[in-house]
Write a structure and sequence with these properties.
It is globular and about 50 Å long. A hairpin with a 5-residue loop joins β1 and β2. It has a single domain, classed as 3-Layer(aba) Sandwich (L-fuculose-1-phosphate Aldolase). α3 crosses α6. The termini are far apart. The longest helix has 21 residues. Helix content is 37%, strand content 14%. It is of the alpha+beta class. An 8-stranded mixed β-sheet has the order 4-3-2-1-5-8-7-6, with helices on both faces. The protein has 7 helices and 8 strands; from the N terminus they run αββββαβααβαββαα. Its EC number is 4.1.1.104. Belongs to the aldolase class II family. AraD/FucA subfamily. It catalyses: 3-dehydro-4-O-phospho-L-erythronate + H(+) = dihydroxyacetone phosphate + CO2; 3-dehydro-4-O-phospho-D-erythronate + H(+) = dihydroxyacetone phosphate + CO2.
Amino acid sequence: MSEEADLREQICTMAKSLYDRGLTAGSSGNISARLSDGRLLVTPTGSSFGRLDPARLSLFDGEGRLIGGDKPTKEMPLHAAFYETRPKKTGAVVHLHSSHSVALSILPGVDAENMLPPLTAYSIMKLGKVKLLPYFMPGDPAMGDAIRGLAGKRSAVMLAAHGPVVSAKDLEAAVYAIEELEETAKLAMLTRGANPSLLTDAQIADLVRTYDVEWD
């Protein structure tokens, strides 16, 4: 199987897994992944993660021009901004509308610089700090501008009242990271107002140092 055919299958398999577990619904969410020659495979607009067709994924050339497949997601500005600002660290981008993450994003008192409380080691290890961005209308190119404004310093952001966006070195890593984001948001919702014990600054610093986490 060629690299492109394999990646097409991976995108559809992982998307269906996310859909089957309720991490996205309807036609929400989008995925992009980069081939070794710089081309991008992207989930089409209006498509369900539960029944993607590998042959119909949108295909972009290395210059960002659509060269095959169906019309791409309208959230391309989000994806493009991560590939532009983190070119050596981004091989895939995943965007979901996962419920707990969205719920946490619209509650008062959430730290916009790091929306996930340090409840476990895993969100720190896989995500670093998650920047909470303001609300944008879906498809608004300003979302991409907001990510560019971070100058490549964050691998994950949360769009208020919309959903998380995570970039990583490859598709598997991006999927695992966004799953961890949703699970940590769920824990934050479950423990909100209960005064949970958080990781200490020293424990966080140890994780950052040991796992080379982007934190500053």
